[in-house]
Structure formats: structure tokens, C-alpha cells
Design brief:
alpha+beta; 67 residues; two-stranded antiparallel sheet
């Protein structure tokens, strides 16, 4: 096995272990529970908006993409 290939394999295995550990510790939201808190930047004003700031209001998240 070439040296570069062995290094790539070791890196891939290490990354796989890190991602697996992160997935085990991440708690998935359950149906009926409040959404996890997150922050986003408003594209128009540049102000940071937290989900906590919108508690009690209806929130619509639109995930769109264009390729």
C-alpha cells in the first residue's frame, strides 16, 4: 500500500469515528417537543435572530435551493 493511500485511509477512519461519536451525543428532537434553539442572521437588516426571540409566534422555515 502506498504511503499516501494509507494516510488517506487513516484520516477517513478517524473522521468516521469523530462523526459517529458526534451523532451519538446529538439529541434528535421528538415530535411534539419544542424546536432546538438556533440563531440566524437576517438577510435584510443583518441583525441576528434567535428562535427564542420568536417564542409564542408562528414561524415558517423555508428551505430552498437553486442549482
Amino acid at each position: 500500500m502506498r504511503r499516501g493511500t494509507a494516510a488517506q485511509l487513516a484520516l477517513a477512519l478517524a473522521l468516521r469515528g469523530i462523526l459517529a461519536a458526534a451523532a451519538e451525543t446529538a439529541r434528535q428532537p421528538m415530535l411534539g417537543e419544542p424546536a432546538p434553539t438556533f440563531r440566524l442572521q437576517d438577510l435584510l437588516s443583518g441583525k441576528t435572530i434567535s428562535l427564542e426571540d420568536l417564542r409564542g409566534r408562528f414561524v415558517v422555515l423555508h428551505f430552498g435551493a437553486s442549482w
